[in-house]
Amino acid sequence: MGVIWRKVWRDVMHNRARTFLVVLSTAVGVASLGLVFGLSGLMRARMTADHRATVPPHVTLWGAAFTQDDVDAAGRDAGVAKVEGETSVGIRWKREGETEWRNGTVIARPDYAAQRIGLVNLIEGQWPGDKTLGLERQSSRFFGFGRGAQVIVQVEQREERLTVAGLVRMSTAFPPQFGGEATFFATPATVQWLAGVEGFTQIKLCLRSFSKAEADSVAACIEGVLEERGRPALGYGISDPNVHWMQDTVNTLFLILGILGALSLGLSAFLIVNTLNAIMAQQVWQIGIMKVIGATFGRVVRIYLAAVLTYSVLALLIAIPAGAALAHELATWLLGLMNIDIDAFHVVAEALLIQLGVGLAVPLLATLPSVVGGARISAYRAISSYGLGAGFRRGWLEQALERIRSLPRPLALSLRSVFRHRVRVSLTLFTLTLGGVIFIMVMSVNSSLDHTLEVVLQDFHNDIVVAFDRPQLTADLVWASRGAAGVTRAEAWDYSQARLSVSGGEQADISLWALPLDSQIFTPRIVAGRGLQAGDDHAILLNRKTAADEHLKVGDRVTLTIGGRESTWEVVGLVLSLGNNQRDSFVPLGALAQELGTAGRATMVMVEGQHHDAAGQQALARELRVAYEERKIELSFLESTSDTRSHNRAVFDVVTYLMLTMAVLAAIVSSIGLMGAMSINVVERRREIGVLRALGASSAMIVAIFVTEGVLVGALSWLLAVPLSQPGARLFSGLISEVMMPLDFSYSSRGALLWLGIVLVLSIMASLWPALHASDISVREALAYE
Amino acid sequence: MIEGAQSKGSTGEGAPALIELHDVVKTFQVGANPLVVLKHIWLRVDAGEFVSVVGPSGSGKSTLLNMITGIDRPTSGRVFVANQAVHKLSENQLARWRGRSVGVIFQFFQLLPTLTIVENVMLPMDFTSTFRGHARRARAMDLLEKMGIVDQAHKLPSTLSGGEQQRAAIARALANDPPLIVADEPTGNLDSATATGVFDLFEGLVEQGKTLFVVTHDTNLSAKARRVIQLCDGRICQDSEVRRPESRSDMEQPWA
After folding, report:
1. Does residue A543 sit in helix, strand or coil?
2. Structural domain harbouring B201
3. What predicted TM-score, i.e. pTM, was given to this entire model?
4. What is the mean pLDDT of residues B64-87?
């Protein structure tokens, strides 16, 4: 190894603490990239592979009781490659010894051994048989029981006990922890025995060649066929077989993580620049000597870039495995939420290449100006020595600080020392400020998510929402609901998907909520026109976003396709509604019923009770169930707004925890920057420390001076971060609104205050070690010439 | 004091001049005021001379040294060293020229702390590629042998005494076999016994044909020089050859 390379290596190893800080901060930034790209690579590959392996249906038609002949008839369409029927019914179940009934879903397939579409896998035990059940794996984990357990199922007025024969994995099962119900599997005969349902509730199709247009066309044809056969479909859904059903949500997560990862990398780069500036400052005299003995500018540049490269390689040795491990752990957790098993641990090639490229290139590019600046110094300037006052300028800032006369001298020393090296303190402030901005941004998004949830729920004053499998007589529903104790108001509603015809012959999917014209439960936020009122027929209160996207306004007449039938509606108003990705619009109950052919019937009830807290709503829910059972009305879904809030909160928590992880990383990198800067300050001010000691300063006083300096920098960064975090948080929330869900922005003042506490603590901790080192320096050491 | 004295080489006309300074002025800006540190210096040093520069603090000795080594540039005037117009070279050209043509010895040794002694000596050879790669270590060890510190070759500078470090610095200055050696207070940080050893080394170098240009306060060292230049307030106020004294009373201190 050449002498020059030995100098590089030994300089790196000479100050291990500083090397550790630089390497760690670089590693954090590069590991963040490894986490993001590794996670993306692991998840996309597994999600796509798993999704394709299940042979997902391209089209699913829902109905009441399709027969096998109906299924076969659907299969005869020219565009259909495969067809299969499935039954899905809601049940009430509990375990032995429990008092509360829970909602559940039972899925029945004609032949589990010969599935064709939407495959489920037996992972333990046996397929369900006569009066036995299979239990979905996620449900088993969440509810804490498995194969061999007994489940009590409520069947009309009786209870039946069934044994779980096996565990089944179904990749499309909605996670129970996010509000999904327990999922069971049974034979068609068992379902008929339990729920009295004969036939299939779904027809699933795979097309010969998938495209949305083809799927729409085939679905429309089959709807016509089913209608002719007397068993019309209630609707259909289309899924892209190449896109996992949670891909959009996961993509949003990746985008958020990617932004935060890039910010962390930026922080690391600034930190490296700051540290290398300090190294160059410390090595000025060595640069001078090297130039005296023959080193050219280019040679000096190469020496210090080699040092940067050494730091980068050391950082990569940490970052690559750390990023891969974090990515694997996080992927295991996230894929687990989606009921997907992960492959054995491996490093994603794309992540590795990106980390290598960025980990080597970014530090070199970021530090190039510092290295060039340091190498450019002339031999004369480099070897000149000016004593304690070397490099001290007396500019406007120093003069301003000098005017602050009433401070104790040690505090004045700390305050004025903060600005002694403008470039270094600027970079340190930048990293700390950016760390603060990221933290407050994340807290504000979290606050906005909470606020948005409240805003969405605020439009509706109900405590409970009840849904039914089949349309029920409106009068019966209201009468039954009002019969439950604690009910103050009950309204029959309905819900349907619809397609809005837009320009260019395209159609946009929207959701229709149908409500009584005299509804007291819904108070819409009208932004144009008016709300629904008595006398309205085919009137629509259109979502503001839909109107903006499709260039519609109050007074326009629009064509909606509902249940396969087209009808014309008048836009009477525009509503601000954030729910369902701003796709919800509102119509009169009677008008929708007319289009669906369900006049006088509804499939939902909105119930308001006397008590609006969680316990009150749970009690009300119990009363309602009893009331419906007494009147033999079968419900498919009942949820309190408290439960809605907590389920949505659970989904948001996944995003929030990931963002907070990145915010914590940013905070760590920022404080490492401060520690590095303070360490360099101590080294450069050795002689000053010696003089202070010679004048009588105790160790505690030396520590206090340096810690105070660090805390002042931290406090100053907070003052900069707070105003910058306002537009930053707004921008970030806006981005999430675009890609994830619309957010009603709420700035987190609590987050700003929390960051003040955090940055002060981090500043103290980051300054303490260098300050303690400073207090160890003796007068003799500090004032001895090299 | 001799105003604008031109200092001629002591070996007489016809001998090659290694160093020539023509009307060199150096001014520093201190605040709003200019400080003229060197005032119209004319100087000629022939090859093989042993020259010492003496004078009180602030007289411009180190600045004069910096002019010759190219570490600093004159405000006006011309500097020629080893047939090179030093004042016209760029920083990079100066570095390359210095590595090959001048060996510099500092008062505080200035060895790179993370390199061993032999590596410090090899470093100038690496910068200028004057010797083939595999020959550099051998030459460095040979130089250390001549300096009497070959046993310290693989130690770090911080483990050596001041005298040993200065010997290592001399070895480094000789690494590329430059014709000119300049030293700025080379014994300023050494005890008298060690300093004497360094004096002897310098005499040995001169006998080998090197030109030695030393700035020093050390009267014993300057006494060994064959030519003493005295600087007073930025000017050469005395330039004489020093005869070896035959008796104590013959000791001359022309700069007193």
Report:
1. strand
2. 17-241
3. 0.72
4. 92
